[in-house]
Amino acid sequence: MSVEQAPVQRADFDQVMVPNYAPAAFIPVRGAGSRVWDQSGRELIDFAGGIAVNVLGHAHPALVGALTEQANKLWHVSNVFTNEPALRLAKKLVDATFAERAFFCNSGAEANEAAFKLARRVAHDRFGPEKHEIIATVNSFHGRTLFTVSVGGQPKYSDGFGPKITGISHVPYNDLEALKAQISDKTCAVVIEPIQGESGVVPADLAYLKGARELCDKHNALLIFDEVQTGVGRTGSLFAYQHYGVTPDILSSAKSLGGGFPIGAMLTTEDLAKHLAVGTHGTTYGGNPLACAVASAVLDVVNTPEVLAGVKAKHERFKARLEKIGQQYGLFSQVRGVGLLIGCVLTEAWKGKAKEVFNAAEKEGLMVLQAGPDVVRFAPSLVVEDADIDEGLDRFERAAATLTKA
């Protein structure tokens, strides 16, 4: 028996929610594939993907089926017990990656928190407390907990919350010489996003990642890849480290892993994992049966030659059309990214106006993202249909035409 729901509207947000977000003026209420409908019944094409989360679009039958089946069995037992979906998911991730051990949590920040704690614990156990320094990159983003926001290289997110966690430094991204100058035998870990997502969709150079790997080996430091945004098929490989052919010691994953259901994972080797002995780290919800059942279904669909090859083909379809739009309207100077994580870099005339592009796209019935003020970001479903790509880009072109005419 369904209970009648009280009506809500966008204005309610300002009355009942903490004001740390500024959501769009409409409320999405239903999705199917790469289409979304709002309260008024207006249809939009979704190229935002819930910020690179809805890896199989909305209401994908495989995910609905997995969630429904598990919902009728077991929701939560805590980590006092294990559960079948968690073990199945861990096996799939271990079989598909360099990793031999998995730790499950609920978000990318938690996956990174676990990664950073593991790195410090390993160094502490093997070399003593002096070896605790973490090197991250300028403009990186690793989450919003105090530890992860301190590791992230964007002071606007970490300032104003009291003393920061110490022993963390930041060097320019893609600058191997800067990393070489900073790393020492006190370094316990180097943390890199293979593609910087939040700060503008900036892919790493292969030589940079290879050099970072060599420097870490030389100084007994661990190489951590934050693959929260790049993982689970986003680049056309299951994980971006496979795209580059450079293997980290620890990898964090979330976002796409659950296809919209909250889950995060930290992946590592058996040799490193043993340093998180019983009682050293934990989470109440992490690895719950609902999340793991959904994530397992996500992997079954995404980790196939058809879907991964499709990501590369769809990248080309997006890029060719976006470059054409960018040139025709003088809106952006470069289209960069890998797979279905794409950034359009705004021209000098449009610098700082990514929000205006976002708003213009929404008026045309298209959901896109920003990556900082100067880049328009696309992170659609990996199985977005070609017809939806074409129609969405038609709408984007109409937005570009309107903006540049104004």
3D structure, described in words:
This protein has 15 helices and 17 strands. A hairpin with a 2-residue loop joins strand 13 (about 330-340) and strand 14. It is an alpha/beta fold. About 40% of the residues lie in helices and about 20% in strands. It starts with 9 loop residues before the first helix and ends with a helix. The chain folds into 2 domains: about 10-60 and about 305-405, Aspartate Aminotransferase, domain 1 (Alpha-Beta Complex), CATH 3.90.1150; about 75-300, Type I PLP-dependent aspartate aminotransferase-like (Major domain) (Aspartate Aminotransferase, domain 2), CATH 3.40.640. The strands form 4 sheets. The chain has a 7-stranded mixed sheet, sandwiched between helices.
- Using the alpha-carbon principal axes, give the shape: globular
N-to-C span: 52 Å
- The top level CATH class name of the largest domain: Alpha Beta
> Which spans have pLDDT < 50 for at least 5 consecutive residues?
none
Annotation field: number of helices: 15
